[in-house]
Amino acid sequence: MTALLELADLRVSARSGRVDREIVHGVDLTVEAGQTVAVVGESGSGKSLTMLAVMGLLAEPLHVSGGTVRLGDRDLTALSERELRAIRGNDAAMIYQDPMTSLNPLMRVGDQVIEAMTAHGVPKVEAGRRMLDLLARVGIPDPSRTARAYPHEFSGGMRQRVMIACALAMRPRLLIADEPTTALDVTIQQQILALIDELRRELGMTTIWVTHDLGVVARLVDRVVVMYAGHVVEDAPVRQVFSAPQHPYTKALLAALPDPTDDDRPPLTQIPGRPPTATDPVEGCPFRPRCSQAVDACATRPALQTRMQGRAACWVPPHEWRN
Amino acid sequence: MLTATDLVKQYPVRGGDGVVHALAGVSLTVGDGETLGVVGESGCGKSTLAKLLVRLEDPTSGTVELDGVDLTELRGPALRQQRRHIQMLFQDPYSSLNPRLRVGQALGEVLAVHRLADGRQRERRVDELLEMVGLGAGFADRYPHELSGGQRQRVGIARALAVEPRVLLLDEPVSALDVSVRAEIMNLLVNLRRELGLSYVFISHDVAMVRHLSDRVAVMYLGRVVEIGDWKSVLDDPRHPYTSALCAAVPAPNPELSQPIEATVSGEVPNPAAPPSGCPFHPRCPLAQDSCRRLDPALLPLPLGSGRQVACHVAAERVTDRSAQLAPPGS
Fold it and tell me: Using one digit for the tens of pLDDT, what is the confidence trace for A45-61?
């Protein structure tokens, strides 16, 4: 296997006056070509910022403050905005939670899909033909008619389909899907997940799902990366993450979900306290103040180390965990 | 006991002469101390139902009764008095709190409006309410922007409890919260229900959370209840194809189970201004047959004599077929 995407010590900071506050604290992550990975975390974990940094889409005051993002053989952090534009939508594409914010409300949906191709040098006539195929492929009924509609005439699910058509028009090698179904109804969520997964197979795309919901990704991915307070705390094959979590935060996050097979419906497991913030960081392991397993060693931040088939950033191995 | 009978709510279509049938005849009851989960997707009428139950809006027809008192008939002070008994908690704790009021002031205001306590007594009651939702009296001096999402939702719960209601309408109360915070709020709701003997109407699109909290569950689609019964039979052994689809769309968080990634239902919810003929679910239903296109199925006990009701021709036929075969129970 070859690495398609390689993040090395990637840091994201926010400028605030003369200070630079670091929010993502050195992410190391390698995604092999063809792999499907979930990046999981709660709000403030840095999961979306990390992926926006990969795409070169951070907006002031946020910026990459260290490390590299290698896509294939290029370091994206060293490229100009112009060079990045040539890569975005072509080699790598991203779809977001709310399609309304990324579709142009004043432009017919068909034209937006065409533009996603002409921006990368596809002749207009060919792009027009491919647009109809793409809209049909993502499940838009009667494409030659609906291509003339504006985004506001579409339902949330249909807009998300248009965004998928735009993102996949150039057959990117890497797709980042950031909570693409969170705003949608349950049955529509299911349709969109199935569609992205189908297209992923068809195009052989390397795919990163960014999500807060472990349940949704369990069936979709090979591997799960858990982020907490701007750090990767666990990175392991999906089965291992669920059956033998190697970081106490991963375990707590799983226990906070109701078990749909348990008829006794016991209280959900809570995680005491709140995550650290950029203005109020924690010394040592960022999870230490909330962790039921914390020991003295946790005053020093643990690096990711090999645990079974994956990696975890924890000084205390699971066999030493107290209940 | 809260009883809604044949609630209909129609809204005029903007700029047209048609009507949107937001609710097309919904009947349900919520017993003392009982939690009724209401599950459905956008456009199913669950939010309209909530607004009618708290009398934020009047129904086109039908009644809402609390212990035999018809709330839809009440006006003025009598309505204010009854309204206290049914309080609503909204999804978004951010937008439902006045940013300029400290938490203590916000709660005190509710007590003042309803003339429930004044002076020193009001302060004590505010502290008591904050303790009740697990925040502690120290939070009285905080402003909403100083609180996390979970803390704001706790303040929302305290405000709803200030008037000593008997029924809480929970409209997607944990949907905007992170997984770990969601667990805290769900546990708090379970504890308050037990301590205060509250009834809940828990409105959510999240089948897993509805399963966790509810005694009975009503599944809504396009302005009607399509299945209702005790939580376990409805969610673990659904009879309506729409309930089945909803349940299948919420995977167990377990990669060991083989759970195919496939759309369980095709198409989208139809426009409630132009609902389909017959069963409202038939255009998306994998089991639809001829009768489903012609006749709107009634909500019937299925199996006969059970507490569960289902509005589906196919489910009804299956039960009839089974009894026609005179098969011994369990086979």
Answer: 999 999 999 999 999 99
Q: ipTM for the complex?
A: 0.87
Pairing of strands B19-30, A305-307: unpaired
Selection from A161, A137, A149 nearest residue A110 by Cα: A149
Q: Is A3 exposed, middle or buried (0-12, 13-18, 19+ CB in 10 A)?
A: middle
Confirm or reject contact between A80 and chain B (CB < 8 A): no
At residue B30, φ and ψ (nearest 5 deg) are -130, 115
Sign of the CA dihedral B169, B56, B49, A155?
A: negative
Check pLDDT > 80 for residue B70. Answer: yes
CA distance B208 to chain A (A): 6
Nearest to B211 among A43, A260, A268 (CB): A260
Task: Please state the pTM of the whole predicted model.
Answer: 0.91
Among the listed residues A140, A92, A87, A86, the one whose alpha carbon sits nearest the alpha carbon of residue A113: A140
CB contact under 8 A, A260 and B264: no
| pLDDT tens-digit readout, A146-174 | 999 999 999 889 999 999 999 999 999 99
Instruction: Residue A259: list chain B partners with CB under 8 A.
Output: 252
Chain B closest CA to A258's CA: distance in Å?
7
List the structure tokens of A54. 């990969």
Question: Are B212 and A258 an interchain contact pair (Cβ–Cβ within 8 Å)?
Answer: yes
**What phi, psi does A151 have (nearest 5°)?**
-50, -35
Give contacts of B264 with chain A, Cβ < 8 Å. 187, 190
